[in-house]
Structure formats: structure tokens, C-alpha cells
DNA sequence: CAAACATATGGAACGTCATTCCATGACTTG
DNA sequence: CAAGTCATGGAATGACGTTCCATATGTTTG
């Protein structure tokens, strides 16, 4: 009991960028993007806001770092030793599962170009598209399409999660609400939306996600046959 | 000069939801999402924050309404009287151009499910996919893929615009910076990213966007041939 | 071993934001 | 013209990101 006569300084377990990012991820998972505040972070880490700023430039930096930590793990955990098509599917699904587990990934942060999270994904997909035998000049557009699609799903998931949280609904109740609202639309102006209202309630996000990836892969295969 | 002895009440040009939304769009266009504050809006409309809340529920409502106004105009301006494929391309391009003109559209607001902006787009694309002769049970997944892709591009554009604004760069200087950063990456870890650094600088967003749409359309055509 | 310096820490303070509250005034209805 | 509703806008509130600073610990130097 000789330590800490005053209050602060050289804590039992030192503050570090990694510990701050871990704590941020935990807060983001439980409270969404809105839940992550420097005050909540201070409390959880038993320190003051000032101390956090020693390790992290600002909130934007913190969010990007949290996204990057998740993307990095997802990419590391996903083995790619099959056909290029299967590998692309595996990488995309790894991202989908990461997004599903951490909906806040869909925040604009992950899309920040030139930043680590995006680049990790770009590289991983780019390598597989290269392995597919796509001509060099077509690779950019194809990788871009895959990337945009994946990030679009991420954004959608984030929006869903945010709205559901705001309204205090769980996922199934939320989907039910949307489905009901769609069913009540004007039949003349919104025939299609009404016709898919049921599928909105019952669909499986993950299955639909792979279907989209396969659609793009099919488009690539079609290009190559010419 | 008989009017307005005091200060307020029944302004020359009455406040209205539409006028508020128009002003919001103007502010968003010039200052991005961060620029839209109730203070800025009050100033522009020569009123106080309280008056705005009489017409608008909160900021989220305001952003959704602004997105919806743009999406509505874009959908209305886009004629669809050609083949379904051409129509899908036209709708997608109309959205691309709207996003390009108003990068803040990429904000999570537009993705809010069940809300008007999304539904308008869903309906428009869904009708064309139906006209394409896609079996009813496949329509949902295909429309979802197109939607996710388009919204992914929107999010990317928003992220680009935001980052460029934060750093005070214009678009070309910004792309140059990213391209340079990518060229400086470790050749062993990031071969693909390095190889496309040049294309990153010189590419045409709009051309790449249609290429992605065509890829998905190709995937659909491939499905149907079976 | 003692200064001197860089490294961390955390509480207090600042300015800005979305939002709420309320006193007030102007139209509308009877 | 009185009563009631619709609008208005300024002031107050509380939370947030961020900055500042007094302070304490390690580490290097003489």
C-alpha cells in the first residue's frame, strides 16, 4: 500500500493506445456510435479525458483505429487457399460477419479512402481478382464494384442498427414494423415495395449478401467469356 | 413601415417546412453535414432555433427530409421509357449525379430503411427489375444488390467529400495525396494497392460506377440464361 | 546521488451543439 | 371584441469534443 499517496500517475495497468481501442470497441458494441464519448471512455478506463488525448489524436482517429482493429482481425482470420471465386466469397463473408457483429463499422469511418481499413480490404480483394485472371485494366473497376457493394451493405446494417436502437426495438420487431409500413403503401405508386414487404420481414441478410456477391462474380465470368 | 413594431411574429415570408428544407439543402451543399447546425439555419432564415422546431421534429428528421427532397427530384427527372436494362442504368446514373452534386446524401440518413428516400429508390429499381423478367422469388436479392451497390458508392462519395473538406483539399489534390500514399506502401504486403495507385488518381468515378452496374446487370443476364 | 528533462496523467474549463421552455404576439373563430 | 389556437424567437439546459495546466513518475545527464 505504499503506492499512490496522491491520486494519479503511472496507473496499475498503464493506459495505452491498444487498451483505449479495446475499451472503445466494447463501448461501441454495447452503445453504438452515439455511445462512444470521451466521458464514457474516461469512466471505463478510470481516468480523465485529457489522458486519453495523449494516446489518440481525436475522436475521428479513435473511430478509424477501432474500425481498423476489427477489419484487421477479420482479414487475418479468413484463410484464402481455394479458388479465387471462393476466396472472394470468403473475404466478403468475413467482412459481412464482422459488420454483423459490430454494426458501427458501417459508419463513414471505414470508407475513409487511403486509410488503413479500406486499404486492407482493397488489397485482399484486389489480389483475388488478380488471381481470377482479369485483365489488368479491368481490375480497378471490378474491385471497386465489389468494395462498394460490401461497404453499401455495411452502411445499411449500420443504419438499421442505429434506427432500431433509437426506437428501442429488437431486430425482428423492427423488421416487422418496416414490413407493415410497406404493406400499407399506396398500391398504385408502390406496387413493387408492397410485393416484397413480406420478404423484408423474413429474409436472411447473410444469404442475400452472398447472392449479391455471386451476381457480381457472375458478371465477371460473363465478361471473361467474350 | 407600420409593420413589426416589436420584433417577431408573422414574418414577411412565412416559415414553412419547405423553406426550412430548402435552406438546409443550401447549407449542406456549401458546408457539408457538419455545417448544418440549427444556429446556421436560424441565421439564414432570420429566426430562432425554437421556431424551426415548430416545423421539424429534430435534426435527424431534417436530414432525412433533405435527402428525400433530392432523391425525389432525381427520380422525377429521370425518364424510364427504354429497355429495362437501360432504365436501370438511367435510374442508377440519376442517383449517381444527385450524389455527386450533394455528397452529404451518403450520410446514413439516406439508408434509413422504411424511410421515404430508400423506398423511392427501391420502388423505382424494383419495377425495372420486374420488367426484366426476373422470377419473383429472385427479385428481392437482385434489387438489394443494386441498392447496396448504389448506396455504397454514395457512402464512399460522402466519405471522400468529408475527408477532403476536413483537410481543405480540392478533389484532384486529394486524389493525388491518396495515390501518393498508396504508392509508398510496402510492395510485399500491398502489391495490388500499389499497382492501382495510378488509376486511383486518374479514374473517372462516373465511368467506374456504370461499369459496376453493368457487372451486376451481366450477372442477372447470366442467371436468366440457365 | 541530484538535478534536468521527457513522458504521462487527470481534473477543470471553454465553446459549440441539439434541444426544451416560455413569454409573447398575431391570426381565426364565435 | 373576447377567447383560443397557431407561430415565433430568445433564453436556458445539459452533453459533447477538445484544450490547458498543474502535477507526478521514469529516465537521462553531470
Describe what this molecule looks like in 3D.
2 copies of one chain form a homodimer. Chain A is 73% helix and 0% strand. Chain A is mainly alpha-helical and 226 residues long. The N terminus of chain A is likely disordered. At the A-B interface, helix 6, helix 7, helix 8, helix 9 and helix 10 of A face helix 6, helix 7, helix 8, helix 9 and helix 10 of B. Chain A binds a DNA duplex (30 and 30 nucleotides) through helix 2 and helix 3.
Concise structural overview:
Two copies of one chain form a homodimer. With 226 residues, chain A is mainly α. Chain A has helices spanning 17-35, 38-45, 49-55, 59-77, 84-101, 108-111, 116-131, 136-166, 171-183, 191-195, 197-202, 205-224.
Keywords for this structure?
homodimer, 226 residues, mainly alpha, flat, disordered N terminus, DNA-binding
SSE run of chain A: HHHHHHHHHHHH
Query: Could you give the count of β-strands of chain A?
Result: 0
In this structure, how is the largest beta sheet of chain A organized? none
In whole angstroms, the N-to-C terminal distance of chain A is: 77 Å
**Helix fraction of chain A by DSSP (H/I, runs of at least 4):** over 70%
What's the helix and strand layout?
The structure is a homodimer of 226-residue chains.
Chain A: H1 17-35, H2 38-45, H3 49-55, H4 59-77, H5 84-101, H6 108-111, H7 116-131, H8 136-166, H9 171-183, H10 191-195, H11 197-202, H12 205-224
Helix pairs in contact in A: 1-2, 1-4, 4-5, 4-7, 5-7, 5-8, 5-12, 7-8, 8-12
The structure holds a DNA duplex (30 and 30 nucleotides).
Amino acid at each position: 500500500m505504499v503506492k499512490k499517496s496522491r491520486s494519479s500517475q503511472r496507473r496499475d495497468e498503464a493506459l495505452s493506445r491498444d487498451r483505449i481501442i479495446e475499451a472503445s470497441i466494447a463501448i461501441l458494441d454495447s452503445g453504438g456510435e452515439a455511445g462512444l464519448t470521451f466521458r464514457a471512455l474516461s469512466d471505463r478506463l478510470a481516468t480523465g479525458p485529457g489522458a486519453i488525448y495523449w494516446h489518440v489524436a481525436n475522436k475521428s482517429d479513435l473511430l478509424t483505429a477501432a474500425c481498423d482493429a476489427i477489419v484487421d482481425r477479420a482479414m487475418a482470420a479468413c484463410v484464402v487457399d481455394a479458388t479465387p471465386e471462393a476466396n472472394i466469397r470468403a473475404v466478403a463473408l468475413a467482412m459481412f460477419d464482422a459488420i454483423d457483429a459490430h454494426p458501427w463499422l458501417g459508419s463513414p469511418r471505414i470508407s475513409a479512402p487511403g486509410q488503413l481499413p479500406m486499404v486492407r480490404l482493397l488489397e485482399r480483394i484486389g489480389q483475388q481478382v488478380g488471381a481470377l485472371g482479369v485483365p489488368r485494366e479491368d481490375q480497378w473497376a471490378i474491385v471497386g464494384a465489389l468494395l462498394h457493394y460490401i461497404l453499401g451493405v455495411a452502411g445499411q446494417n449500420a443504419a438499421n442498427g442505429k434506427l432500431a436502437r433509437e426506437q428501442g426495438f429488437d431486430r425482428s420487431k423492427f423488421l416487422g414494423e418496416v414490413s407493415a409500413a410497406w404493406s400499407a403503401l399506396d398500391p398504385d405508386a408502390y406496387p413493387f415495395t408492397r410485393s416484397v414487404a413480406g420478404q423484408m420481414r423474413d429474409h436472411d441478410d447473410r444469404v442475400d449478401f452472398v447472392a449479391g456477391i455471386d451476381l457480381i462474380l457472375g458478371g465477371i465470368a460473363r465478361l471473361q467469356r467474350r
